[in-house]
Structure prediction request, 300 residues.
Amino acid sequence: MRSIQILFVLFATTIFCQTLYISPAMDLALSVYEPFVIVQTSRPGEIGLFKLPTGASTIQIVSFTVSATTTLNELIVATKQPAMKERSAGSIKIVGIDCFFRWFSIDISGKSVQSFQLMFLRYNKAYLASYLAPEEEFYRYMIPALLTLCSIKGSTFFNYVDEKHSYRLVLHEPFSPAKIEQGEIGSFVAVDGEKIGYIQIVQEKLPKRMKVNEYADLVEKNTLSKLKDYRSFSFGRNMVEGNEFFWRIFSFVNEGTTLSALQLHLIVDEFAITLTYLSKIDSFERFLPAAVGTMFSFKK
Prediction:
C-alpha cells in the first residue's frame, strides 16, 4: 500500500516545470519536460507515452524482455528498419548505462517524419525511447524531447567539479575536459574520427539585474546577429533542476565553414553564464545528445 501511495505522489508532483514519470513496472524513471505531458499508453510494449497539448510531436518508450546474453549491438541491428533514412548515429553513456542513438527520417502516409531514437539494455530488458515529429515541429521541440530522453534516473553523480569557478556538471561521454582558454571557465571536447564537437562555458558579470530571456536577446542582438549568415532554427526556455535555461539552436559561417551551435544562458546571482556547443554542420548531430545531457546538468 505504501509503495502505491509513493508512486501516486511521484506521478502527481510537478517540480520546476518537469514531471517525474515512473513506468508501470517501476523499472524506469525519467523527467518529462514541458511542453510534453504524460498520456495513457495504448500499444503493446509501451511503458511511456508523452505528447504535446497541441501539435503532433510524440515521445514513446517501448520495452521488451531479452535474453541475458543479448548485446547492445544485436539490439541495434534488430531494431533497424529498411524504411529508415539514417542521418546520424552514435554512442552515449547516461548514468553509467551504455546507450546508442540514431537520428533518422521515415515516410509515413506520404509525409516525412523525423525521429530521434535512444536504446539501451537494463534488467534483461531492451528499452527504445523515440521522439517523433513532423518536419515543421522537429527542431521546435527537439531540446525538451532530448532532455526527457536523456533524463533516465540511476546512480546519478556529478563527475566533473570545477572548484576554482564553483560549478559542477555530469560530463557525458564522449566529451572530456580540454585546456581552458582566456575568458572561459570550462572547455570540453568530443572526438569521433573526423567529427569533433566543443563545449565552452563563459560567464559575465551583469551591470544590473536581468531576466534570462532579456540577456539572451542582448546576446543575439549584439553578437549572434553579426555572425556571417547567422540563422536561428529554434529557441525556448526550460526549467531544469531549479535552473531556468534559455536555449537557442543556430548556424553561421566562419572562414567558409558552416557551423551549428546549441547555446544556453542562465542567470546565477549577478552573473550570466553561457554554455555553447559548437560543431561543423555534418558533425553537430553526432554529439548533440551528449552535449544536451552535459550542458543542462550545470550547477553553480
